[in-house]
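Example (one chain per record):
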Amino acid sequence: MIKKLYKKLLTLYGPQNWWPVISNNPEFEICIGAILTQNTSWRNVEKAINNLYTKNLLHPERILRIPLEELSMLIRSAGYYNQKAQRLRSFTRFYIENSERLKNLDVMDARRLLLSIKGIGRETADSMLLYAFNKKIFPVDTYTSRLFYRLGLVSEDSKDKYYEDMRLMVEKELSNMNDLKEFHALIVMHGKTYCKKKPLCKTCPLQECRTKDLYI
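Predicted structure:
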């Protein structure tokens, strides 16, 4: 089912080549973006990332040098800006000390290390691991949970309850890291286009993928 859904989405939207980066430090930029995108839209994150880029701040040492109040204002568009500025600082210290270690660790060991950081949950950690550190893991976001529920793959639209089940279901069928990246990005695109909070189900091109047999 997952492979069928992936192929259908790829036909509909084409390769997404996600995660978009604008600096010469993609690994760190992706990690920063993963934190900023918590509880907000990517459009708001782009504004914050562009502000940091304009100030030449998409580098760990520079994030630590800028006054916290100024950092907060630069990322204001991403919401919860005071809290996120503190999280960026905390993560940046961690990144400077552990980025090389993360690259060499097994994916689940690297995940546990990231989850030990205050403010880093499963979706944020898994996004960093997949896109920044090229680990084979699938981040389950709100778009994924919503789509899987509406297609009948899960019994409830509950990311918190079914996060690990959905992650493992996708990873079982899509073992290639690049496929995991594309599938995640394609789900986001479909979520913005059809599978919104108020869905456009009648015109949705994925109706044929709906199943009556619950996977989870």
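Caption: The chain has eleven helices and no strands.
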